[in-house]
Amino acid sequence: MNYGDRLKTLRNNKGLSQKDLTDRLHINRSTYARYETNSTQPDYETLSRLADFFDVTIDYLLARSDIPNHKAVFVAGKDINLTDEELVLFNELKKHQIMFHHLMSNPKKKVKELNKLYKMKQMFMEDEE
């Protein structure tokens, strides 16, 4: 997926026409239309406004990442990027030192593994209801 497709998908997900979006962000509609067709690229200021509006990262807009929004946390001397869902789990793990200590060997991998386990637990709990 390229940046034009990402912009169009994000706009459509919000139920906005190009005119609605460009009016809100004070962008020329024909210029924005060229972004969606990959005819031209937005400048940094416009990218920032679009990313803020859609609550995604600039890397996601530019199709350099498939994670719409992530937060960086510092663990074991490394910055790791987490999705919002992973960040919630990470913050919960910090309350339990034994579990949090488990993250130190490979934080990114361990958070992903623990997130999968957490999701599986939720699925089993839903089945029991």
From TrEMBL:
<dbReference type="InterPro" id="IPR001387">
    <property type="entry name" value="Cro/C1-type_HTH"/>
</dbReference>
<dbReference type="Pfam" id="PF01381">
    <property type="entry name" value="HTH_3"/>
</dbReference>
<protein>
    <submittedName>
        <fullName>Helix-turn-helix transcriptional regulator</fullName>
    </submittedName>
</protein>
<dbReference type="InterPro" id="IPR010982">
    <property type="entry name" value="Lambda_DNA-bd_dom_sf"/>
</dbReference>
<keyword id="KW-0238">DNA-binding</keyword>
<feature type="domain" description="HTH cro/C1-type">
    <location>
        <begin position="7"/>
        <end position="61"/>
    </location>
</feature>
